[in-house]
Amino acid sequence: MSAKVWVVPLFLIKGGLAGAAVYVAYDQGLLGSGTEGAEAFKKAQETLPPAIQEWTNYLGWEVRTAQVIPALPPTPKFDFSLSDSWNKGVHTAMSALSVAPTRACEYTVEGWKYVKDLVK
């Protein structure tokens, strides 16, 4: 079979799955107000762990329990001023632009000297 024959059924399957996902999200209250979303989240937290445990037992998979993660160390204190860095960048860019005409003249003179030396 050619590839064109499979395009339409695959498109319909993907579209149907996407539509079903949107319908389930709407039906469970995920697309509603914040309180409806919070209620749906709480319901999912209560429902999912027993369902996952049931399926893992059925399939014979081993479920690892969550390990206690030690607390993260505090973030280091940086003495960094964004405005000072920004100002330094602006000063550097402006000084480069202010000397650009002078440097262009110097490079032009050097280029002419090089060309004259080649022509001799």
UniProtKB/TrEMBL annotation:
<comment type="subunit">
    <text>Component of the mitochondrial contact site and cristae organizing system (MICOS) complex.</text>
</comment>
<comment type="similarity">
    <text>Belongs to the MICOS complex subunit Mic13 family.</text>
</comment>
<keyword id="KW-0496">Mitochondrion</keyword>
<feature type="transmembrane region" description="Helical">
    <location>
        <begin position="6"/>
        <end position="26"/>
    </location>
</feature>
<dbReference type="Pfam" id="PF15884">
    <property type="entry name" value="QIL1"/>
</dbReference>
<keyword id="KW-0472">Membrane</keyword>
<dbReference type="GO" id="GO:0042407">
    <property type="term" value="P:cristae formation"/>
</dbReference>
<dbReference type="GO" id="GO:0061617">
    <property type="term" value="C:MICOS complex"/>
</dbReference>
<dbReference type="InterPro" id="IPR026769">
    <property type="entry name" value="Mic13"/>
</dbReference>
<comment type="function">
    <text>Component of the MICOS complex, a large protein complex of the mitochondrial inner membrane that plays crucial roles in the maintenance of crista junctions, inner membrane architecture, and formation of contact sites to the outer membrane.</text>
</comment>
<dbReference type="GO" id="GO:0044284">
    <property type="term" value="C:mitochondrial crista junction"/>
</dbReference>
<keyword id="KW-0812">Transmembrane</keyword>
<keyword id="KW-0999">Mitochondrion inner membrane</keyword>
<keyword id="KW-1133">Transmembrane helix</keyword>
<protein>
    <recommendedName>
        <fullName>MICOS complex subunit MIC13</fullName>
    </recommendedName>
</protein>
